[in-house]
Design a protein that fits this description.
This protein is of the alpha/beta class. It has helices spanning 42-55, 65-68, 75-93, 115-125, 138-141, 143-167, 178-191, 203-219; strands at 3-9, 18-25, 57-63, 104-109, 130-135, 234-238, 244-248. α1 crosses α6 and α3 packs across α4 (115-125). The longest helix has 25 residues, at 143-167. The radius of gyration is 27 Å and the shape is globular.
């Protein structure tokens, strides 16, 4: 009996899109090592994603950087949207559309501290008729959610590979990745702006811009922007022909 699972990948990176995948499949058809994508080697993830597409139906949704940086939304709402859009893409791939009398049943990985609230929001946001149950770490509990986790991660990996083709080595895109931080800092230093693939609302991006701004200000300071001793109360000036003398603040 088929059931569906939904999970996302790329919620936390400073570079690139977030992806969500929905998979409808008979869990008995899935390979034994299907599970949380983070614990599976990239090569094996790619192999599993191909197998999952062979035995099941798949829908994928992409949440772009532009949507992530929109001040009118937040990551909780975007995660709901990603899950709902992936489910709708899945419904389009099925032979028959689910109905209110015969909804698509399955599980979603909760993207909210309140799992029940999350599942209700996904059900409300999806156009397709679904009966969803949200749980935390569902990708470790339900093989169908693990399958969705793998498909979403492979989609995210392919996205990062395309960014690398465009920009050069960008690392994983996560703030904790030194390669990613170095790329971002170097790009901003060269172009005085963020690359289009960067999430401007992330603190890592703001820090990179601030560092370049501070460096630029230093170029216009006589001492290169170094801190001065504000306690000094005298300076050396030239007098009216008698050479250099010391003048204090009392002279003014």
């Amino acid at each position: 009996m088929q059931e569906f699972g939904v999970d996302e990948a790329g919620k936390g990176p400073v570079l690139g899109s977030m992806f969500a995948a929905a998979v409808a499949v008979d869990p008995a058809e899935l390979p034994d090592d299907v599970g949380d994508s983070k614990g599976i080697a990239p090569e094996r993830r790619a192999e599993l994603a191909e197998r999952i597409r062979e035995v099941g139906s798949v829908g994928v949704a992409e949440i772009t950087v532009e949507r992530i940086d929109d001040e009118e939304t937040d990551m909780n709402s975007l995660t709901v949207a990603a899950h709902a859009e992936a489910v709708d893409a899945l419904a389009d791939a099925l032979d028959g559309m689910p109905t209110d009398d015969d909804p698509l049943e399955g599980y979603v990985d909760a993207g909210d501290t309140n799992a029940v609230r999350f599942e209700r929001r996904v059900e409300d946001a999806a156009s397709a008729a679904i009966d969803a149950r949200a749980e935390h770490s569902a990708d470790e509990t339900y093989p169908v959610v693990g399958a969705a986790s793998i498909v979403a991660k492979v989609a995210r990996d392919a996205h990062v590979e395309r960014l690398a083709e465009e920009y050069g080595e960008v690392g994983s895109g996560y703030p904790g990745d030194s390669t990613t931080r170095e790329f971002l800092e170097a790009y901003v230093a060269d172009h005085e702006e963020l690359p289009a693939c960067a999430r401007a609302s992330w603190q890592t991006s703001k820090d990179a811009l601030a560092a370049v701004s501070q460096s630029s200000l230093g170029e216009f300071e006589p001492d290169g922007g170094r801190a001065v001793d504000e306690t000094a109360d005298e300076t050396e000036v030239r007098s009216d022909g008698s050479g250099l003398r010391r003048t204090t603040l009392d002279d003014f």
